[in-house]
């Protein structure tokens, strides 16, 4: 019982344990014994929150002291910052610069300021270790503007929420693989244009209300997740494998088609018969899909527009599975809605793939798919 079993653990395991107890408690462990005095300086993952301090100045001093006293020989994998309050705009840039100077691999910065004061964040140095960057702004205001004066050649994952981007920022991340944009916009433009030669996974969710169109040119894109976007979507992604569109029916054009598409999920709020031609046109572009998921709203609309399909052959030559998803949730509609597929619609969807199965997915079986989640988790 007198043995110090915790100190007997390997140092790397102790560092990981300290990463989960909070930085204040981790520093407090330095009084346990001489061995533990500097253990906290090797912690690979650090998390800081301004809510733990009475003023932003005390928070700033604490962060500066912790980052300055880290062991420079220890790899810093991830730093999380949460800044909440009426002040701290200048501090956000300072701690971002400080963290990046420590050769960190991942930075997650959340700024929730109560005042509507614009914040400009700039990445002004080339960081050879930064692979993942997450920036979250206020829920009600997209007041953070992000720029970079150097190429971020090692960055592979970028997650932005309520951020204004300069048009050149994404192109300055040549090896970017994963991009998530939530309530974002391009500076001085009502178009969101994403042209990237290596991007593999893209999630777009509720862009700025003034964004009228989305133009995507991504020759290596495999997974595309679009949620609650209005307007015109022009998509050039010849290697697309998985497609999810949820919320609104877009007017979509694909200059090169989706010849590699295997999975697609369409969940639209369909209120008008005038939407039917757009949905049929979109379905024709998904002709190579193997697993197709459609919400009951779409089936109901197609039932009312059979003249659009009555003389058309089924475009789905490789279909293996057709899944019927529950109605898209509305605040006034919480009941499970079932619909019987008409013979014309069934022939249009399945006549070219007679071996395909039909499955009705109940609401309690569905996963609530969020931005950045698996494109087809159902």
TrEMBL record:
Q: Which SUPFAM superfamilies match?
A: F-box domain (SSF81383), RNI-like (SSF52047)
Q: Please give the InterPro entries that the UniProt record associates with this protein.
A: F-box-like_dom_sf (IPR036047), F-box_dom (IPR001810), F-box_SCFL_complex_component (IPR053197), LRR_dom_sf (IPR032675)
The residue ranges of the F-box domain are 6-41
Protein name, entry field:
F-box domain-containing protein
């Amino acid at each position: 019982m007198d043995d110090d079993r915790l100190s007997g653990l390997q140092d790397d395991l102790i560092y990981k344990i300290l990463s989960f107890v909070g930085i204040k408690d981790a520093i407090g462990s330095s009084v346990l014994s001489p061995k533990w005095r500097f253990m906290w300086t090797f912690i690979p993952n650090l998390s800081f929150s301004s809510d733990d301090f009475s003023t932003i100045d005390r928070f700033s001093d604490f962060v500066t002291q912790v980052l300055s006293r880290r062991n420079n020989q220890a790899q810093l994998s991830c730093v999380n910052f949460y800044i909440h309050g009426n002040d701290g705009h200048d501090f956000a840039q300072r701690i971002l610069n400080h963290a990046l100077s420590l050769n960190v691999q991942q930075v997650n910065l959340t700024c929730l300021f109560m005042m509507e004061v614009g914040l400009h964040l700039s990445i002004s140095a080339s960081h050879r270790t930064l692979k993942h960057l997450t920036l979250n702004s206020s829920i009600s205001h997209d007041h953070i503007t992000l720029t970079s004066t150097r190429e971020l050649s090692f960055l592979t994952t970028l997650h932005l929420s309520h951020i204004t981007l300069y048009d050149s920022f994404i192109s300055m991340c040549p090896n970017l693989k994963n991009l998530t944009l939530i309530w974002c916009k391009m500076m001085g433009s009502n178009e969101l244009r994403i042209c990237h030669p290596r991007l593999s996974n893209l999630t777009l969710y509720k862009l700025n209300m003034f964004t009228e169109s989305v133009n995507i040119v991504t020759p290596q894109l495999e997974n595309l997740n679009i949620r609650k976007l209005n307007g015109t979507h022009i998509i050039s992604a010849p290697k697309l494998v998985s497609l999810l569109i949820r919320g609104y029916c877009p007017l979509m054009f694909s200059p090169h088609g989706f010849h590699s598409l295997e999975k697609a999920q369409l969940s639209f709020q369909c209120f008008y018969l005038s939407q039917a031609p757009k949905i049929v046109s979109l379905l024709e572009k998904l002709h190579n899909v193997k697993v197709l998921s459609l919400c009951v709203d779409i089936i109901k609309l197609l039932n009312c527009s059979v003249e659009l399909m009555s003389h058309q052959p089924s475009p789905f030559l490789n279909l293996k599975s057709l899944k019927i998803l529950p109605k898209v949730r509305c605040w006034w509609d919480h009941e499970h809605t079932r619909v019987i597929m008409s013979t014309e619609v069934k022939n249009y969807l399945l006549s070219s793939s007679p071996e395909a199965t039909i499955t009705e997915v109940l609401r309690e079986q569905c996963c609530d798919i969020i931005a950045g989640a698996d494109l087809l988790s159902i």
